[in-house]
Amino acid sequence: MQLEKTALPEVLMIRPKVFGDDRGFFLERWNREAWREAGLELDFVQLNHSSSVRGTVRGLHFQEPRAQGKLVFALKGTLLDIAVDVRRGSPTFGRHVAVELDAAERNQLWIPPGFAHGFATLSDETEIIYAVTGSVYAPDCDRAIRWDDPAIGIDWPVREPILSAKDRAAPLLKDAPALPGYPA
Questions:
Q1: What is the pLDDT of residues 133-167, one digit of tens each?
Q2: Superfamily for the 2-19+27-175 domain
Q3: What is the b/e burial string over 66-79, where b = at least 16 CB atoms within 10 angstroms of the residue's CB?
Q4: Mean per-residue pLDDT of the chain
Q5: Cα 158–102–47 angle (5° rounding)?
Q6: Catalytic sites, residue numbers
Q7: Can you tell me the distance from the alpha carbon of 47 to that of 69, in angstroms, rounded to the nearest whole number?
Q8: Which residues make beta-bridge pairs with 167?
Q9: Where is the active site (predicted)?
């Protein structure tokens, strides 16, 4: 496994070691001991699977309280995955990182608790899996900020996105009623 820091050092790009031959391939998406040796002590509590058509934007979502970390990868297709630091008092508050995840590349992204997560689909059909740490989904803690908040400045690859009603109505980061503190 190869870990790469992104522009937000706590958000990590992970490139698993892939073993391939004429039958196909094998890789470890997560290995408790290997990750522990790399300094990441993670306890996954939920595994989510999402499917979206081309042009869908989901996010930017997080939980507060009961924050979650997310290990995200594409099972099918390609997406632009986004992490935004929403921890009040953080030196990188409001900054984001955008990483392309591709099923063929088998790369994945670790987004720690205290960051909002969103993505845009770049393929006709995109399926993602994300393993969640911290807490299982808690509807009363479910939060969102606007996907196109100009203060965050994400350069989305979709001009007329397919959005949920929740994402269309999400507040700007400056108006968000509940944000995690730093450190989260």
A1: 999 999 999 999 999 999 999 999 998 999 999 99
A2: Jelly Rolls (2.60.120.10)
A3: ebbbbbbbbeebbb
A4: 95
A5: 100
A6: 61, 130
A7: 12
A8: none
A9: 61, 130
